[in-house]
Amino acid sequence: MKLYVTRHGQTQWNQNNLVCGVSDIELNEKGIGQARRLTSDLKEYSIDGIYSSPLIRARQTAEIISKELGVPVIIDQRLFEQNYGIYEGTIRGTEEFLKLKKQFAYTGAENESLFHIAQRVYNFLDDIKEKSRDKNVLFVTHGGICRVINTYFNSMTNEEFLKFNHPNCSLMVFDL
Fold this sequence. Notes:
Helices cover about 40% and strands about 15% of the residues. The protein is built from seven helices and five strands; from the N terminus they run βααβαβααβααβ.
């Protein structure tokens, strides 16, 4: 079984380098174009199922892909992006936000801890592995979730984890 993982297309908040976790922001024109290009690339793979985060930017990306590939989209809450609490909508590179990202168990900023994210994403991956043994599936999700999915398959130091950035509509491929 192959697992294909992509991050949604670009949003205005991505373009403006703003923290975008649970804020429900639509794709911008560039993001729509990225989703269409990714769809073209995905035609060479045999995708049996598409799972998407319920947030609109991921759903829009998944729907563009689904329409062209003829594969229905299944919405799953476990692909929801991390809640960054009080940092939602702030500039991504601020010292305060970068400090929050290094505190894996911290929830004092009304945020969801990284440990909670890892638990729900790892459980989802285990479920998919069991349910879709001989199928190829695509996850359409978010940057933070892509980072956690990568750790399921690849060992990373804390520093590597913090620096990991999965570009909009690029593809990671894993054997599951």
